[in-house]
Amino acid sequence: MSLLRRVVGQRGSLFRVCGARSLVAPITTYRPQSTRAEESAAHETAARPFDEIPGPKGLPLIGTALEYTPLGRFPVKTNLRDSFRERTKTYGSIYREKLGPMDLVVISDPKEIGKVFRNEGRYPERLPLMSMKIYRELKKLPAGVANLNGEEWQRVRSSVQKDLMRPKTVGAYASLQDDVTRDLIDVIRALTEKEESRGQINNFTSYVYRWALESISVVVLDKRLGCLTLDDLEPGSDAQMMIDGVNDFFDGFGKLEMSAVGLYKYISTPTWRKFEKAVDQWHTVAAKLLKEKLTKGKTEDGKLTESNTDFLQSLLSRNDVTFEEAMLMAVDLLAAGIDTTGNTLIFNLFCLAKNPEAQEKLYQEIMEVVPAGQPVDDKMLNKMHYLRAVVKETFRLYPTVPNTVRTLDRDIVLSGYVVPAKTMIFMAHDVISSLPEYYPEPEVFKPERWLRDDESSGVQPFTLLPFGYGPRMCIGRRFAEQELHLGLIRIVQNFHVGWSGEDMKQVNRMIQSPDRDSFVFSERA
Predict the structure, then answer these.
(1) Does 154 fall in a domain?
(2) Which residues bind heme (predicted)?
(3) How many domains does the chain have?
(4) pLDDT at site 9
(5) 18 annotated among ligand-binding-site residues
(6) Do residues 121 and 33 make contact, with C-beta atoms less than 8 angstroms apart?
(7) 81, 83, 175, 346: least CB-packed within 10 angstroms?
(8) Which residues contact 310 (CB under 8 A, 6 or more apart)?
(9) Could you give the CA distance from residue 144 to residue 327 in angstroms, rounded to a whole number?
(10) In whole angstroms, what is the distance from residue 38 CA to residue 410 CA?
(11) What is the CATH number of the domain that holds 101?
């Protein structure tokens, strides 16, 4: 019996979920097959063969895998991004690299990236995250939407995105998430008022992770977990177990997914055991919290009470996904929102701290749009154009997810070379972000480049896709953006954000994470 079934119980034996409104049809439309065939004419007479794509040669059997080990030129944890930039300078906007048995084609031309997305077809494919695939097979859990392809992927995705991608639905949670963010402000204020702190908060990232978990909990669980306190979380508390489990998960996940040999697929390695324990931990805690939510929401006749902002109720009411699939989606959302959104907020605060003029301009916009002492709602968020520009520019310089990967179901010509079907195509947006032909003065933090009424605007399509693109874009994008915007508004509204010491660097754990958090907060007058 699967972990979710053991903790939560069977669909039929628990209770029948009363029907919630159908929220929205899928937001992405599919392009006709004829267009795909026209653009993916892979055997054009002028196209050169796959073997002629330039790139590093590597060694027999393992290719260039040794270069990404701790002793290589591009250690995965600290220097992976440099490999794509250096190889692009050497080989051009398309190159081929062999990592063990896998061929990887890396492209950094926005027009070619657009061609890839236009040829995704009705069922866009991506290679599975093998460590999660193996884990869920062992635990007899559903694969999860990220690891599905084909019609099964479309069935799950088209159903669950109705609760995740409609702006009106997401906006209904803005005031609840704003309440969480105002509690974070209270914590920052209390910590910085201590005489010895001088405005600096030790391990500020840990408080941001608590804020991120609390913010997604009010959506998925319809409750507060009590994370945002001045005290350390109890070691065995639900919140601390979730945060620790997700942190350990990402540590192991990066090592397993980037392993050239992949011994964990055959034997239980120490890294695999740590990874398995971490996922067990946050799965168990999340499933327990979900069970409590479901039990609390029952009426006397065993049905759920209806609510306009009951995400779980709406998710479970879908007839085209199983109970286990819906519950696993809720589990994944609780976990995914901690590090990803938390790290993104940290990167934005760092960019604002290092660029006080941009911070002041954002502060002025906040004061114009958000009345003092008033809650922030989705209508206010929609008016904040400079805020959105700040977030985009931060994604360009400090991406949480630097690149996008796809495989296509047919051959395609990219930059004049035939790329066979099922080849991993790596779209190097992080490389594009560093090139002056796409971003003048690429090293400068300049949110104005994203404002349409600015003379320097005019960023090309497909140069920056922090949440992916098309039918497989990040399914939690709208909630993540709303949460991030609220966090920036409240922090900048209340504090001037400064920085002390050596600049922040990013480390790779499959997502990018900060290596330090030396912020200095001073109360605004």
Answers:
(1) no
(2) 474
(3) 1
(4) 43
(5) no
(6) yes
(7) 175
(8) 20, 222, 297, 304
(9) 10
(10) 12
(11) 1.10.630.10
